[in-house]
């Protein structure tokens, strides 16, 4: 299972990195699951007009705490940034092939994908006999092979048709034009607080995170995302 934070607008990248660190080390944990730390790799994607494809990407198989200072994240200046820290559900799902964001480069535009949850049955919707990596199968299932948009109604219908047995499908899907936040869990969810997501509206920015981060703003200013919500964020428009 994982933690995600996303920011859009005029924000301090250092503050977002520190918020991700707080979640990864358990300092802001307030949920039912025993996992307090998320140390099995991390990654980030941000808007960078000078990068190929318009997005900068970084991944590291180490924990965020031990490797962030070797990364470019502290110096990123952007109007969009998403960070993902992992606690691998299965021990053999560790290493570079499993570190988010996953990417799909053979489409135009390229897509990047971060997932918090466990969907061991989604492979059946692809006609596969067995699952190799649920996040990769979820990415293939939920993000269209062509185009830059997710249709909210179609996406929710696809989520509802996943066979029972999963825990959550929370995700961030990003291309150079748009980012999508998917907030969805099956009705039978034993960990509703863990798989909640929260929205913080600041004067010049939007923050969405897997946990309330008091260092960014008091808890009363964070709003829970609605269940079964697909939030579209335009990356090309001005942010006010």
Structural account:
- This is Glutamine amidotransferase type-2 domain-containing protein.
- Keywords: Glutamine amidotransferase.
- It holds the Pfam family GATase_4.
- InterPro entries: EgtC-like, GATase_2_dom, Ntn_hydrolases_N.
- Helices cover 14% and strands 28% of the residues.
- By secondary structure, the chain is α+β, with helices and mostly antiparallel strands.
- It contains four helices and twelve strands; from the N terminus they run βαββαβββααββββββ.
- Strand 2 and strand 3 form a beta hairpin.
- It starts with a strand and ends in a 6-residue tail after the last strand.
- It has one domain (2-234): Glutamine Phosphoribosylpyrophosphate, subunit 1, domain 1.
- 39% of the residues are buried.
- The chain has a seven-stranded antiparallel beta sheet, with helices on one face.
Short description, anyone?
The termini are far apart. The chain has helices at residues 13-24, 64-67, 134-142, 152-160; strands at 2-9, 42-47, 55-60, 80-86, 102-104, 111-116, 170-174, 178-183, 198-202, 205-209, 222-224, 229-234.
